[in-house]
Amino acid sequence: MQNAMLVGVSSQVALQRELEVVANNMANVSTNGFKTRNSRFQEYLMPVASADSFQKSDRRVSYVIDQGTALDLGQGPIEQTGNPLHVAVRGEAFLVVRTPSGDRYTRNGAFETNNQGTLVTSDGYAVQGEGGPIQIGQQETGLSIGPDGTVSTNLGIRGRIRLVTFANPQALTNDGANLYASTTAPTPAGLAGRLESGALERSNVKPVVEMTRLMDVNRTYTMVSGVISRLDELRGTAIRRLSEIA
């Protein structure tokens, strides 16, 4: 009975984690370049919670282990904005921005320029070019961003937006503000990533799918809670009857 209670609790912990992931996905339905995350779980068979000496040997006790989340790198829908500072990333590449904690990576191409003429994100982080931050003078006109990230104005080429890829993008960790951090160095994207100027990549979250997941999690959590409650009542009844016999 105790094993059954522990199995139920492990299931509830996993379901709570799944609920957090789904809620975060739903909260970012409108976030530019956001990538869905999906929970990953693994069955764990307790190696010592069985006895083979009985006429019918015990079954292995199966628990649920949280194995983290998987990043869905599927392309989000592209929406035309007409803003020359907006870029949508196509392919598996990431944009590089400089934060106080170092370089971070994003798919959000909603850029703007600050008071110093530096190309920055909406959070004020400098967009990194192949030679560092990209500067655009306030008097310059005819701004355009090419598919390879080349930024040009009426005065010529001002820089080239840095695009990178990762050997194992699943190792990227969320670092807030729709940014990712990596413990391994990226490599130049090459043909693995291109930019579309005057457009933004929207979130690849599918609201209908996430709502279905949310209902499934709530239904399963309620069912497991009911099982745990019945087991607790059964244990209480057993204790009372044993005390009466004693």
Please, could you describe this protein's structure?
The chain contains two helices and 19 strands. The strands form seven sheets. Strands 5, 6, 9, 10, 14 and 17 form a six-stranded antiparallel beta sheet that branches. A three-stranded antiparallel beta sheet has the order 11-12-13, with no helix packed on it. Strands 1-2 form a two-stranded antiparallel ribbon. The longest helix has 39 residues. Helix 1 runs antiparallel to helix 2. The radius of gyration is 26 Å and the shape is elongated. The relative contact order is 0.20. By secondary structure, the chain is of the alpha+beta class. It folds into two domains: 113 residues, no CATH class; 124 residues, no CATH class. It is found in: Bacterial flagellum basal body. InterPro entries: Flag_bb_rod_N, Flagellar_FlgE/F/G, Flg_bb/hook_C_dom, FlgE/F/G-like, FlgF, LlgE_F_G-like_D1. Pfam families: Flg_bb_rod, Flg_bbr_C, LlgE_F_G_D1. Keywords: Bacterial flagellum, Cell projection, Cilium, Flagellum. Its main location: other.
Précis, in short:
This protein has 246 residues and is α+β, with helices and mostly antiparallel strands.
Distance between the termini: 21 Å
Model regions low in confidence, pLDDT < 50 over at least 5 residues: none
Average pLDDT level? 87
Instruction: Tell me the number of helical segments per DSSP (H or I, 4 or more residues long).
Output: 2
Which of globular, elongated, flat, extended, rod-shaped describes the shape? Answer: elongated
- Radius of gyration equals 26 Å
Largest sheet: 6 strands, antiparallel
Number of folding domains? 2
Family: Belongs to the flagella basal body rod proteins family.
Keywords: Bacterial flagellum, Cell projection, Cilium, Flagellum
Protein name: Flagellar basal-body rod protein FlgF
Domain Flagellar basal-body/hook protein C-terminal: 197-240
